[in-house]
Amino acid sequence: MSAEHHHHEHSDHHEHHELGFWRKYVFSIDHKVIGIQYAVTALFFLLFGFCLMMMMRWQFAYPLQPMPFIGTWFGETFMPGGVMTPDFFNSLGAMHGTIMVFLGVVPLVVGGFGNYVMPLQIGAPDMSFPKLNMMSYWVFFVGGVIMLASFFVRGGAASSGWTSYAPLSVIAPTGQTYWLIGMVFLITSSLLGSMNFIVTIVQLRAKGLTMFRLPFFVWAQFVTAFLLLLAFPPLEAAGVLQLMDRVAGTSFFLPEGLVVSGQQLVQKREITGGGSPLLWQHLFWFLAHPEVYVLILPAMGIVAEVIANNTRKPLWGYRAMVYATIFLGFMSFIVWAHHMFMTGMGTRLAAFFATTTMIISIPSVVILTALVISLYNASIRFNVPMLFALAFLPMFAIGGLTGLPLGLPVSDIHLHDTFYVIAHFHYVVAPGTIFAIFAGIYHWYPKVTGRMMNSFLGKLHFWVSFISINGVFMPMFFAGMNGMLRRGYDPTAYAYNAPNMGLVKMMSWSAWLLGLAQLPFIINFFWSIKGGRRVSQNPWDATTLEWTAPSPPPHGNFLTEPVVYRGPYEYSVPGPKTDFFPQHLAKAEA
Amino acid sequence: MKSRVAWVSAAMLFAWWCAAPLAPVFAQAAATATAPKITAKIDGEYGYWLPSNIAKQSYAHQGDYLNNLLHWFMAILFVAWGIFFVYCLIRFRSRPGHRANSQLPHAKISKYAEVGVAIFEGVLLIGLAIPAWAAVKNDIPTADRNPLRVRVIGEQFQWTFHYSGADGVFGKTAAAKVDTATNPAGLDKADPHAADDIVVGEFHIPVDRPIICDISSKDVIHSFFVPVLRVKQDAVPGMRIPIWFEAGRTGNYEVACAQLCGNNHYSMRALMVIQTAAEFEEWLKVKSAPPEEFDEDEL
Fold first, then answer.
1. How remote is the C-alpha of B227 from its chain's centroid?
2. Which residue of B has its CA nearest to A312?
3. Is position A485 within any domain?
4. Is residue A561 one of the residues assigned to a domain?
5. Where does the pLDDT of residue B296 fall: very low under 50, low under 70, confident under 90, or very high at 90 and above?
6. Window B:205-234, CB contacts with A under 8 Å
7. Shortest CB distance from B234 goes to which of A153, A343, A369?
8. Quick one: closest CA in A to B80, which residue?
């Protein structure tokens, strides 16, 4: 041990010299810096993806009319005379989905929140593999750059849906190739990250922190990491196969007898054939179904933390929630073909997947019910994080319940690929996960910056968002029930959609209002870094370990190594004078 | 370390930069077909819930029943649970003198509710959903019910309907013989059975008679969707998937494409004309007349 070492009280860190700007803030291996990098990058992508949708909503509500103010910004190829082409519309749709899922939500909830908060909550000085952590961020970054670059190639960005079904995606222009290469980078990033999370949670928990004393947030991240690790590889392989179909003349997903635009499809001087479009669907959905649980589980983790803290009592059914989460993770691997009921599926396979889909609704209900019952006998503080966490509950309920008619094949016949499906999944991920993300940002902001975000702006952000987001998605159930199809450039092309065009306009105006509602948040987020009210180390009077570190925590996190003596949610228990008993205190303060 | 990261990053960027331009750009926009313009007035009632159901096949009504039943169930659950939620928010709000009680409530009702929900879902699954899907797949009308067989072919961006004509036998088809404008089904004109085949862009069917459609596609995945008949089937290239249904009312309705298939996916619409048996026979006779130029939008 060198003489300098006793100046550093954290045990295993070995940088003895001051890091330069680039190593400290850009190519850092500190999980907190990486977490912030992930979070800020992902927030930018969320906003970008949302802007793509706000543009699409113009075309839905005012089909074939020039977009006011900004219509001329996009050039004559994509928006001649300010009217978007159907190709550009399809690109906006495909990239909206891709960016929101793979560049926005997952990097934020896993790379952002998971990276920053999880090591702190388990009392670790950093992740098990800090350099791998840094690599996973930069690989994600390159993937994001490739995705954005695809807008500028000939033919525009990918336009075959975020689902990229073959053969459409195989015959699509170059943007799809960029999408596939971008996905390879993004998936690699997730695989590197998920390994890191699992090892860290298993190996680096503080003394006394048994698995059943972990905050539910950490359990959620743990199961999510397994989902990412096990579900992503088939899609990475499938992405490479599709790339080969596009550039190397293979026919993994191209059957015989294809006639495109009146010509038999020829690649590399041979007629294509021998493959199956359904193979792509199976490989894609094998990832994409567990992926949706990747979207929701960390969000439930955030909501659980905020609710426990702001009800001032332990979570009801913590053990049930943990077992339900593990069961959910396992089940999520055997439901994927409920996305494929209409592909010509026979009775045995349909019965299997309908049954597993019904079964998987049970753990979701268990978790949601536990969170709601946690409100009973509570003392509920309605601060900004709690507003978002509370709103999550009914919004997720609506999303989850509306999965039922979709999960049974015979009722799915009418609803498949309609706006009903869009409403269903957006309810879980938009007023669901994204509200949980906001709850987490307002909740952990004081730990990251040492300052509170402004509460008035936060409440404004919440109420306008809550009302407008329901204005966007609730009408979709009704339009979809009537048969309005998704990914439709001009709904008025079908006479049967005519009665629902009023709803379509309402959705669009609500979406633009929702966009405006984010301005107070963006202003608040940046202004509060320097201008927010300074607060103590534990402004929320919370029990979990991250609140024992300074705000912001230094490199190595804790000034003394934490030891854990009790569970994560000991609020309003007999013993301490205050209404909370932190995990790390050996005994109640006198 | 720094230079290694830089080299690896540069190598990765170089790799994708090399691969991307190799992809051929398919010039498809110009050469795809467009769906015929429809001027007929469309029948049926449409609004904020399920549209008119003019189908007679069992699964159409079972599907509607299940949809409506499920939504009642969902609404009741949501309202009951929502009342409890709002009650808690009001009753247990933080206020001076009010402390939380960390003793966890026993809440047996939640266990009963869970079990009740699971049993309800199980009953629906085994009693209704699984048998209904079995009917969709297995109850293809047998010959004694005199079904009409039609081949439905999807392509970018039109539907083609192929009837076997008076001889009841479909002529041979081949991908190599396809011509989008004159021979969308790729009929082998040398085959004697092809002489009376009818290939049109409008879907005519007789009312009150079982119909079997073989759904397929020539290029990408489409989906044959008729809202008023509660019929939807993906048209997957390389597969020929049979569906069956029976219309109970005459009139003009729309056929939609329910799977993203390219830039004109939104307008891949066909007119479905449900006629009386007599009108349908008349239409068949007119269309079966000696070979003429393929004319998509003639009634």
1. 8
2. B100
3. yes
4. no
5. low
6. 218-221, 223, 225, 227, 230-234
7. A343
8. A394
Q: What is the CATH number of the domain that holds A450?
A: 1.20.210.10
- A459: three-class secondary structure by DSSP: helix
Higher per-residue confidence, A418 vs A12? A418
Residues A56 and A88: beta-carbon distance below 8 Å: no
A365 within 8 A of B114, measured Cβ to Cβ = yes
Beta-carbon separation of B42 and A495 below 8 A = yes
Q: Check the CA dihedral A421-A422-A427-A430 and report its sign.
A: positive
Of B20, B26, B118, the CB nearest to A177: B20
pLDDT at A10: 42
Beta strand B148-155 with B158-163: parallel, antiparallel or unpaired?
A: antiparallel
Q: Is residue A385 part of a domain?
A: yes
Together in a domain, B166 and B263: yes
CB pairs under 8 A between A and B: 342
Say yes or no: B153 and B130 in one domain. Answer: no
Q: How far apart are CA A395 and CA A383, in angstroms?
A: 19
Chain B residues with CB-CB distance to A376 below 8 A: 88, 92, 105, 107
A332 in any annotated domain: yes
Q: Which residue of B has its CA nearest to A317?
A: B104
Q: Are A558 and A121 in contact (CB under 8 A)?
A: no
Q: Residue B265's domain is classified under what CATH number?
A: 2.60.40.420
Does B78 contact A393 at a Cβ distance shorter than 8 Å? no
> Residue A374's closest chain B neighbor by CA?
B104
User: Do both B74 and B128 map to the same domain?
Assistant: yes
Q: Please tell me whether residues B62 and B177 are part of one structural domain.
A: no
Q: Residue B125 has what DSSP assignment?
A: I
ipTM of the predicted assembly exceeds 0.90: yes
Domain count, chain A: 1
Q: What is the number of structural domains in chain B? A: 2
Q: Do B82 and A573 touch (CB under 8 A)?
A: no
Q: How far, in whole angstroms, is CA A146 from its chain's centroid? A: 20
Q: What is the pTM of this model?
A: 0.93
Distance from CA of B238 to the nearest CA of A (A): 5
Residues B70 and B189 in one domain: no
DSSP letters for B210-248: -EEEEEEESSS-EEEEEGGGTEEEEE-TT--EEEEE-B-
Of A154, A177, A262, the CB nearest to B179: A262
Domain that holds residue A407: 27-548
- If asked whether residues B166 and B279 sit together in one domain, one would say yes
Closest CB to A482 among B51, B64, B138:
B51
Cβ within 8 Å, pair A86-B266:
yes
> Can you read off the two tokens belonging to residue A393?
């509950």
pLDDT tens digits, A342-380: 999 999 999 999 999 999 999 999 999 999 999 999 999
- Asked whether A381 and A349 are in contact (CB, 8 A), the reply is no
Together in a domain, B75 and B132:
yes
Nearest CB partner across the interface for B19, out of A181, A313, A397: A181
Residue in A29, A261, A570 to test binding to B, most B beta-carbons within 10 Å: A261
Q: Looking at the structure, do residues B68 and B197 belong to the same domain, yes or no? A: no
User: Would you tell me how many other CB atoms lie within 10 Å of the CB of residue B241?
Assistant: 20
Residues B220-256 have pLDDT tens digits of 999 999 999 999 999 999 999 999 999 999 999 999 9
- The continuous run of DSSP H or E covering B149 comes out as strand B148-155
Interface of B with A in 158-177 (CB under 8 A): 175-176
Helix axes A347-373, B108-124, angle to 10 degrees: 160
Interchain proximity B93–A361, CB inside 8 Å = no
* Domain range for B132: 58-90+109-138
Q: How far is CA B2 from CA A27, A94, A209, A512, in A?
A: 9, 36, 37, 45
